[in-house]
Design a protein that fits this description.
With 632 residues, the chain is an alpha+beta fold. The protein contains 20 helices and 21 strands. α6 packs antiparallel against α7 and α6 crosses α8. The protein starts with a helix and ends with a helix.
């Protein structure tokens, strides 16, 4: 390690000039001039005090131990002691700390672990000097670390080698790296990772495209990122380029399908750049993970992690890639300062996703997506209650796991608020506003109050009529949906409405006009069917359209929900295969919730979950455990 110090220090010197902070900022918080934020006191989900001591860069040196399901090694933290204090506080959870040293000569220092707090873990309190600029922590992770999922070979496509992937969002980075685990802090990083021979390691950084013979991989991330975007994956992987700056990684058995399915990625990048400015992360690659990945996608910079459930065989689900790519501007470039401001990531990204899809596939196509989003938003409001404080865009998650804020409110209410701004201000003016927002606050963090201030000064501009029509206070700080919700309309879905009506009037499934329907039309159709339906109606639909055997995960999910609602037992084997074959929480949650509404459904859910649970990520396990009152 000592022989590598000059390389680390040279990198840090350069890294401090790359998007970390501009003179006069408080930390790297991107708010308008005159508004300083004390990052240490306003993030309720971090023990760290970056207002006192700020981590600027980290250097990881880790061994990946599949046999014991551990990462082990060191993290070197290059710090700025802003307040000249004698203590550095880091976030940890379920980490085994083996030793701590300070300085380039690695002098041992005293440290202690603070009290455990639910879902937040324990603070690591390290004694430092006022002059300390380098702290090294030697540690190893727990086999049950929540961010890490260790898959045996049988849970992969190839069935030969194991697989590891991480999921750091929202506050799980602390389960595999001692760090300042708050989105208010951005840092550059580098890493050396050792893996078993024959495997490839990838990170949210500059990545290899071929295997290393000795199993040692080196990474460099020159752009400053928050901790939740730290990512690592290790497995039997291959790479296919799309062009000179984008491509896809996947297991050898999946790579050809993945490369075909995601081939429009370069076009998406061009569209996004034409709208919101240059892509600032070098490369944009996608990693298609094994089915247990708990999300549709995770926007890790340079390397989106994606679920294999998007591989529908007809490129109909690639809007997910548009969403994760959009995060390269909203979220990764300008980041929510706390998880109370989550809508600044996801609402903006959902809006940009539809703008990308409109440019690629036309307005009616994006209106289909918007209509489905509006349905999901109304469903969420119905489930939470329109006056529930969690239906506000700006949340209060203090004392709660921030994952409780990952509802469709942030995504869908957020995107409709931005659509409203576009419609009232005009698209051209609103596009200029957004581009200025991304340019001005690039590589910085933003809170809701800061955004409202920027919106007021740069778009509203003392226009009282515009301010009245927008109703900012109602949209952001009040529950429910304001009366000025934008309207959506899709010709393609109007066709589906007619066929839903005809089916309800007694026309057989084979008599419906469904020629050339896409995934979104089928989803809309299945969501709009009358309830309840008879066994004969369900059988007619299944026979005509083979829903129970479809390989399209979105359509199958919608069908299985209908099957549970109508107790159509011939679909239950497909339900069990689906629930035991993937771990995407967006599908698991509504299916288990639907099963749990009846005694017989809860019994079936328990039997399926007992088989499926070991293959789910800890994030999905926590969600379903709560639904079923599961005690493992």
């Amino acid at each position: 390690m000592k022989t590598r110090l000059p390389i680390f220090l040279a990198f840090v010197s350069a890294a401090l000039l790359v998007g970390c902070r501009t003179p006069g900022d408080s930390l790297s918080i991107g708010v308008p001039a005159g508004r300083a934020i004390d990052a240490g006191s306003f993030d309720p989900h971090s023990f760290s005090r970056p207002d006192r001591v700020l981590v600027r860069h980290i250097a990881l040196d880790l061994d990946v131990d599949f046999d014991n399901r551990r990462l082990a090694g060191t993290v070197m933290l290059f710090i700025e002691n802003r307040a000249r204090v004698t203590e550095l506080v880091l976030d940890t959870k379920d980490l085994e700390i083996l030793g701590v040293s300070i300085g380039h000569d690695r002098k041992e220092t005293s440290w202690r672990m603070g009290d455990e707090q639910p879902f937040m873990g324990r603070p690591l309190q390290i004694s430092i000097k006022q002059s300390t600029s380098l702290v090294t922590v030697t540690y190893r992770t727990s086999p049950a670390a929540a961010a890490l999922q260790w898959l045996p070979p049988e849970q992969t496509a190839g069935k030969k080698l194991p697989f590891l992937f991480t999921q750091s969002q929202a506050i799980l980075a602390r389960t595999w790296v001692p760090c300042q685990d708050t989105p208010a802090v951005r840092m550059t990083y580098e890493a050396r990772v050792r893996v078993p021979p024959g495997m490839i390691a990838l990170m949210s950084a500059e990545n290899p495209t071929t295997r290393s013979e000795d199993g040692v991989y080196r990474f460099r991330m020159p752009q400053a990122i928050p901790s939740y975007l730290l990512a690592l994956a290790v497995g039997d992987l291959e790479f296919r380029p799309f062009d000179g700056r984008s491509g896809v990684y996947a297991e050898p058995e999946v790579i050809e399908n993945a490369a075909w399915e995601l081939a429009d990625t370069p076009r998406m990048m061009e569209v996004a750049e034409s709208l919101y400015g240059p892509y600032r992360w070098g490369r944009y690659d996608v990693l298609v993970l094994p089915p247990s990945f708990p999300y549709g996608g995770m926007e890790n910079p340079r390397l989106t992690f994606a679920t294999p459930t998007i591989l529908a065989g007809d490129r109909s689900l690639v809007s997910l890639v548009a969403h994760e790519l959009a995060h390269s501007w909203s979220g990764n470039l300008v980041t929510n300062a706390t998880w109370n401001d989550f809508w600044l990531n996801e609402g903006f990204t959902s809006y940009i996703e539809l703008r990308i899809m409109e440019a690629l596939s036309g307005r009616d196509y994006s209106e289909m997506l918007a209509t489905l989003s509006l349905q999901e938003l109304h469903d969420e409001l119905g489930k939470l209650g329109a006056q529930n404080p969690d239906t506000r865009l700006h949340l209060d998650l203090a004392g709660r796991d921030p994952d409780e804020g990952t509802t469709s409110i942030a995504y869908d209410k957020g995107q409709f608020f931005l659509r409203l701004l576009e419609e009232i201000a005009g698209r051209e003016r609103f596009d200029e506003f957004l581009r200025d927002y991304f340019d001005r606050f690039a590589f910085r963090s933003m809170d809701t109050a800061g955004f409202v201030s920027f919106l007021d000064s740069e778009l509203i501009r003392d226009d009282e009529e515009l301010e009245r029509r927008v109703a900012i206070e109602e949209w952001i700080f009040a529950p429910g949906l304001p009366d000025n919700l934008p309207r959506v309309s899709s010709t393609a879905l109007s066709r589906v409405d007619r066929e839903i009506q005809r089916f309800g009037e007694g026309i057989s499934a084979n008599g419906l006009d469904t020629l050339d329907w896409n995934t979104h039309q089928w989803r809309y159709f299945l969501r709009g069917l009358p309830t309840p339906m008879s066994y004969g109606q369900m059988e007619d639909l299944d026979r005509a359209f083979e829903f129970s055997t479809t390989g399209n995960s979105e359509v199958l999910n919608a069908w299985l929900l209908a099957a549970i609602e109508n107790r159509y037992e011939p679909a239950y084997p497909a339900l069990e295969r689906f629930l035991t074959g993937m771990g995407r929480r967006r599908f698991l949650l509504p299916l288990y919730e639907a099963l749990a509404r009846t005694a017989e459904g809860r019994d079936l859910a328990g039997k399926i979950y007992a088989k499926a649970r070991p293959g789910y990520h800890s994030i999905s396990q926590g969600t379903i455990d709560a639904i079923l009152d599961w005690n493992s």
